[in-house]
């Protein structure tokens, strides 16, 4: 049902809501398109005219300067006009409904919505409501999905590890509340990564997490053993309030990534983090700033991947044959 | 006196402060220019170079994401550079006066101010202060005027009803506090609409409202009888606090537009609303989402009308012979 | 040490952190480049393609709509893409460090940071952290420096007085807390102004202020005697809370610039103020709006000077021979 929204009748990607339902070729097409946008970011004039005269709306119901900035830069480098809207401080508090807000913006002949919302399913709800010629990219909805993050993560993994078919990837931290983890697990499974692991205390793992296609570890050292890629998740400090985690210090002792714990992973393992980092909580600075961390390349790749997704859903440079298999 | 500010010595519109003082031809010229900008919004590349290299300042002392967005999109489609300023959170709270803020922005060689302010007359005050080569559009000042809203409303009425000379238009709700109503009544009178009605409880009607050129109705059904156009106003929920309105439920029963009440209007009556709507308060969802509602076309037309007003006051495509009659 | 950051190995200005360490020629080169940008602001199409395809980040940890606007306009007239970030309301309150924020933005291939921060030395800290190809302009850090303000002030002085070598400049007000005063004193000394005076109550003067190269006056009339240029500083009303100043009325009586006090300066003295003004506190409206005030020309010049600094640090139109003498 989501795929009816994600693909048009020719099998072209028209909205990006979630990784689920994408097939391997679609994902590789996005990564390959992103490859060509990496060069744009390194040029003297970082601008291509693909979306000239198009209006992109950054609609962030949940505020995130960092993610909004990446989409704003990506859209501007594609020559689009960008409108930033943070409805938490605008007309929704005048009593207007979410869908009325969307209808209004769409009536202004906007072309692409980038939506972030604290509720799972919000992006789906909006995309379903939009007419087919208006496109949508999910920039994170509740605990559900954060597909561009998963795509930039897999782009980064491919950049450093070339081949997905021999990898052991460990994702560490608050899996339960993390849309990043959810989307990443899906993308890695689709790309054929043979072993995806999650490492977390039981209180931060969803029930039946194995059904997502992962192996569970409660102990950091065992879980990191021979990993090629370690993905650290951001721990929301507000979780500390409840009984989910003992204390910051104890969490760091058990699940914070230190050079010592990292020894259990492969010697050439890369370290990833979606940011913003809590140094000294989920990751030690010696690791975050170390030579195996690829946290900043993730950010660089994030611009290229978002340019690629924007270009593809807008039909600008859509690669061929992206019809989903299922 | 306002017209000395609205027109230059050649009779060209240079500021848009209020509908009062505009003559029929000026208004028709704006609507006709807007017609040509409708096409721009439907193009593949929604951009014309009319205001390239010009700096437009969206100066919203009263915050309104929706209206600010329409002006921002309009200006960007004309290729202007747009600066958004919300002085309620900026240097006016450093003790600077309104006119010092204006002087400063003008000294930066800005070309066009779009001003919204909670005080009636603020736009006039600013325009009077600006040098003649800098232009101003009133985006709503207190209870006084909201001229671009009235223009987009009349554009929409013309689109659906072709001819103003046979129409019965009913405006329903809080006439007393509404700059939208005030501006709309003026524009409809100038355009020769033979019967403009206002429908409201006495507490929400200005004293001597008939002098504006309208017929008053306190009863919704009588007022809607044979109307061609029904314009619902937004009810500010904060009015509920005082004694102006009994209760939300009672207001809806008496003045909320329902399919049942709508039967009193003509079969082909169109329903308008300036937004944002309070569904279930002044309008029922069955009406708002019904086929006779033209609320979203109003939004679409709003972009074209604002582009037209911007282009005209900037001298970009000023139609001939707009000298006011008086 | 700062100059290692301000100049590259060829002696080209690559960051502007502070006036200290700049030599006379560097400053004159900036002023001369600004001269050519004055014309751009007066053109029909106020745009040059110098920074096309570059991404400028306005990173304002301390919010200032006025200064942010000048940099935003300057960057857009140079055709750059501009991203406004106000981290006080963004991810730094998610616990991310300043340098992580910088790293992230830099990883997005941004080209130029314009940084404002409440802490002295913040701009230096950021510039030191950035790779050499990314440039930085200090838009005000704590009490330390506000170099573009000092440059636009000296540009304005040159515009009205032609020659720096015969001038008597008096700076009046809260010298102690003013980065504007500090940077201005430096620039005037470097440009060879023979007499720079500061006038303030003892509580608002730094210890050993004479070492900066100024003459101190506690009395306004004596200090203004035969001045060619009078620079009034903004008084932060929050200082009133402490014991630094007696009362607003008494401060105005002693140090507020009135027409009466101004008689002590030369007949053709010009009056400057960095804005926003507290009328009736540090300056009387009769002076602020009088014919000798050049406060609005300062604003106009501010755009041209900021365009010049941006163009020069980005290597766009870097004048020759700006190698510092020391």
Rg of chain A, nearest Å: 19 Å
The CATH topology name of the largest domain in chain A reads Rossmann fold
Broad CATH class of the largest domain in chain A: Alpha Beta
What kind of assembly state do the chains in view correspond to? homotrimer
The chain-level structural class of chain A is alpha/beta
What does it look like?
The structure is a homotrimer. Chain A is an alpha/beta fold. Chain A has two domains: about 1-145 and about 300-315, Rossmann fold, CATH 3.40.50.1370; about 145-300, Aspartate/ornithine carbamoyltransferase (Rossmann fold, 3-Layer(aba) Sandwich). Helices cover about 35% and strands about 15% of the residues of chain A. The first copy, chain A, is built from twelve helices and ten strands. The longest helix of chain A has 19 residues, at about 25-40. In chain A, about 55% of the residues are buried. Residues about 315-325 of chain A have low confidence and may be disordered. Chains in contact: A-B, A-C, B-C. The interface of B and C includes residues 53 and 109 of B.
């Amino acid at each position: 049902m989501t795929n009816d929204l994600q693909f048009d009748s020719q099998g072209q990607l028209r909205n990006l809501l979630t990784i689920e339902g994408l097939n391997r070729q679609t994902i590789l097409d996005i990564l390959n398109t992103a490859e060509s946008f990496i060069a744009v970011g390194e040029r003297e004039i970082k601008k291509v005219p693909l979306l000239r005269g198009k209006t992109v709306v950054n609609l962030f119901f949940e505020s995130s300067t960092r993610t909004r900035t990446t989409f704003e830069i990506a859209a501007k480098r594609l020559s689009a006009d960008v409108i930033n809207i943070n409805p938490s401080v605008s007309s929704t508090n005048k009593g207007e409904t979410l869908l009325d807000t969307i209808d209004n913006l769409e009536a202004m002949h906007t072309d692409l919505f980038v939506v972030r919302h604290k509720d799972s399913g919000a992006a789906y709800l909006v995309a379903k409501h939009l007419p087919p010629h208006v496109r949508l990219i999910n920039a994170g909805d509740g605990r559900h999905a954060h597909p561009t993050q998963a795509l930039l993560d897999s782009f980064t993994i491919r950049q450093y590890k070339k081949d997905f078919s021999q990898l052991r990837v460990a994702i560490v931290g608050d899996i339960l509340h993390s849309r990043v983890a959810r989307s990443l697990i899906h993308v890695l499974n689709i790309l054929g990564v043979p072993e995806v692991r999650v490492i977390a205390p039981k209180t931060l793992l969803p029930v039946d997490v194995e059904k997502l296609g992962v192996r569970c570890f409660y102990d950091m050292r065992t879980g990191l053993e021979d990993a090629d890629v370690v993905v650290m998740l951001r721990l929301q400090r507000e979780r500390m309030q409840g009984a989910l985690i003992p204390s910051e210090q104890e969490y760091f002792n058990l699940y914070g990534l230190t050079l010592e714990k990292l020894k259990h992973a492969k010697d050439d393992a890369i370290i990833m983090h979606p940011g913003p980092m809590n140094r000294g909580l989920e990751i030690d600075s010696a690791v975050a700033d170390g030579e195996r961390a690829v946290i900043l390349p993730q950010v660089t790749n994030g611009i290229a991947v978002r340019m690629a997704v924007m270009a593809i859903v807008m039909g600008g440079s859509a690669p061929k044959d992206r019809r989903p298999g299922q």
